[in-house]
Design brief:
With 276 residues, the chain is of the alpha/beta class. It is built from 8 helices and 13 strands. It is globular, with a radius of gyration of 19 Å.
Length: 276
């Protein structure tokens, strides 16, 4: 089946972010700033730059209110004060946030098991049966050309795709930190989780940017939990390999994770060096 070109994206941020406690007991991890913008805004902008028209943010119960406020609340009091002070230009970044594509914030389905596949499953009702869509993990930021744009360009070449996953080369000694891609003729043949360097099938790491189709939802089933009893996106994609229609796109931008304080600081530094 050929699916319609993606116009929607699901962005996930529903974990506990325990490595960032205590700050994440109050705010979602993706609301941590890189410069004056939170991580989540950079991921939303990456989707918007690629032509995505509608975004679903999947949050925790506590995070939903915060994202709704950030992306939808017009702070008239702040605008009025800045106008009175002759500093109207300082309000322009706020207007830019409110002018982003349609954003709906939902709470992750609490009945689903823990795992990075559960936020995607929680957004099922927003995806039509005949359309491809983007999934982005808010742990990951991409500097330069966005990976979402790369995936959508790849879909033009592979309109039979059941899924297209993003990959980026990492140093040989770093493969033990990531899910490493095995592929043949541009098609995914497997994902090897954190292999020893001598056992790695490549140095191409999979990260949190995917172009998926509704076929994935049949595999994001609570009965299909994997390691640690969690529902994993990678496991669901691995089940799609048998269709012969899962492709790999090596992306052009620079991917960095913000999933722990050390890597977050590295991404913060890169952003503020002007590599946005």
């Amino acid at each position: 089946m050929k699916y319609k070109f993606p116009t929607k994206a699901i962005i996930t941020d529903a974990g506990f972010a325990s490595r960032f406690l205590p700050i994440t007991k109050t705010i979602p991890k993706a609301m941590l700033p890189l410069g004056a913008k939170p991580i989540m805004q950079l991921v939303v902008e990456e989707c918007a730059d690629a032509g995505i028209e509608e975004i679903v943010i999947v949050a925790s119960h506590e995070g939903k209110r915060i994202y709704d406020d950030y992306f939808h609340n017009y702070p008239e009091k702040i605008e009025k004060q800045l106008l009175a002070q002759g500093k109207a230009d300082r309000f322009e970044p706020v207007k830019a946030v409110l002018a982003l594509p349609k954003i709906t914030v939902i709470e992750q389905d609490p009945s689903l098991p823990y795992g990075n596949g559960s936020p995607i499953a929680s957004a099922r009702s927003f995806i039509n049966d005949d359309e491809a869509f983007i999934v982005a993990y808010s742990d990951d930021v991409v500097f330069g050309k966005g990976a979402v744009k790369d995936l959508m360009e790849a879909f033009k070449e592979h309109q039979d795709a059941a899924a297209i996953i993003a990959g980026q080369k990492v140093a040989h000694e770093e493969v033990k930190k990531y899910g490493i891609i095995s592929m043949e003729d541009g098609k995914l043949t497997g994902l090897v989780e954190k292999p020893a360097p001598e056992d790695a099938p490549s140095n191409l790491a999979s990260y949190g940017r995917y172009l998926l189709t509704p076929e994935i939802f049949g595999h994001l089933d609570p009965r299909n939990t994997g390691l640690d009893g969690e529902l994993w996106t990678a496991d669901a994609i691995a089940r799609l390999i048998n269709t012969g229609r899962v492709y790999v796109k090596e992306t052009a931008g620079t991917w960095m994770t913000t999933g722990d304080p050390k890597n977050y600081f590295a991404a913060y530094t890169k952003y503020n060096e002007g590599e946005k």
